[in-house]
Each structure stands twice: as C-alpha cells, then as structure tokens.
Design a protein that fits this description.
Elements: E1 3-6, E2 9-13, H1 19-28, E3 34-39, E4 42-49, H2 50-59, E5 72-74, E6 83-84
Parallel strand pairs: 1-5
Antiparallel strand pairs: 1-2, 2-4, 3-4, 3-6
C-alpha cells in the first residue's frame, strides 16, 4: 500500500490494501471519513486521509501495525480543473 499525495494532502486508497484489510475498513471505518478525489478524468472514490487511517489502524486489536513507507506517490494535476471533494 502506498501513501499518495494530492495538492499536499496525504491519503491512502482502500483498493491498494490487502483484501482482508479492505474488508475490515469497509466494515468498521467511519464512512464520512472516506473521501473522493477528482484527478483529470479519474474519480478516486476510496481515499482515506493518512492521518485518519493511521489512527484507525492503531485502534485495531491484534499485532502492532506494519509501518508504511513515507515515500509517497504524488498525483500530478493534468490539464484541466481538478477538484477535491
């Protein structure tokens, strides 16, 4: 799973997580914290702010969370207007 950036906002995509973790997120994560990002012609509708994800993961029972690389992918704005919802 990669930490991505859009206009300085760090986020993770649910679809980039392992299947088991995706299931846990969809079952227990607060829906109002799942955000949408419009980039060019693409709608990324399964995004979570990294800070919200880290807090959620720390609250989960079980072994300590795996640290994620702070190396991130930056989504470059393409020609046209971009919006953050």
């Amino acid at each position: 799973m990669n930490i991505e950036r859009f206009k300085g906002i760090e986020f993770v995509r649910i679809s980039s997580m392992p299947k088991e973790q995706q299931k846990k997120i969809w079952e227990s994560f607060e829906r109002e914290k799942i955000i949408k990002i419009v980039s060019g012609q693409s709608l990324l509708n399964d995004c979570i702010l990294y800070s919200d994800f880290a807090a959620w993961e720390a609250s989960q029972p079980g072994p300590a969370p795996t640290p994620y690389s702070r190396e991130s992918t930056t989504i470059s704005p393409s020609v046209g207007k971009l919006a953050f919802e």
